[in-house]
From TrEMBL:
One of its GO terms (molecular function) is ATP hydrolysis activity. InterPro entries: AAA+_ATPase, ABC_transporter-like_ATP-bd, ABC_transporter-like_CS, BCAA_Transport_ATP-bd_LivF, P-loop_NTPase. It comes from the Bacteria. This is ABC transporter ATP-binding protein.
Amino acid sequence: MAGAALEIRDLSAGYGPVRALRHVSLTLPEGAVVAVLGSNGAGKSTLLRAISRTLSFHGGAVTGGSVALGGLPLTGLTPDRVVAAGLCQVPEGRQVFARMTVADNLRAGALGATGNRAAQTAALRRVHELFPVLAERAGQRAGLLSGGEQQMLAVARALMAGPRMLLLDEPSLGLAPLMAQRIAETITEINAQGTAVLLVEQNAAIALRLASHAYVLDVGEVVLSGPADELAASDEVRRRYLGVV
Ligand code: ATP
């Protein structure tokens, strides 16, 4: 296994009496795309929040297990330290700063970066190449962008911190099929440039196409995992998550 893998072992988490994750173990190898599937309430967002150490902002807490990036334990770090360690989350529902301009949203993303000014200029060039529309709309308020463009901005903002790993929470949610496809292509491109991606998706068809490996969460537990092509061929996944009867 590559040195900088994200290793999650036996992770449990919840919100007061609600046990949202139970003994979840998962590996994201360096440079890979790994998908996490599951229906509403399965615990997907909780998993990402537990990794990025933002669970307490939602009234939750990790109750057991470990998360480590390249051997460095993340459990116990503050969210900004997790970003500095190379791991960035794009939350569900985009959450761009609506009243700020596109350019200022991107600048905000660079605040967590450890890189110098030259690294930030290079990061900005990279996101403008990936999403030319963000260069065209640099001076516009982010709230005026379309849903798809806001998703692009949310991903681009995370990339400004120069992460080794990106945690993506439902990037295709609420987008028209063409825009969802466009986002999927960008994820492939970002990964090809060397960033590993942990992709949480309800759209299993997209996720299994992008990922090499996938995990299925159900009521907080991993109930299936394996190579994405094997899961895509499994009767249970086809029936429950791909809508094939
Ligand atoms: P969705 O796609 O609907 O976001 P999910 O798979 O991401 O689903 P989670 O949002 O992680 O699932 O929810 C897992 C469980 O934790 C559910 O039972 C949910 O009701 C509960 N939960 C999630 N967020 C909170 C919260 N802030 N406070 C209390 N319970 C929560």
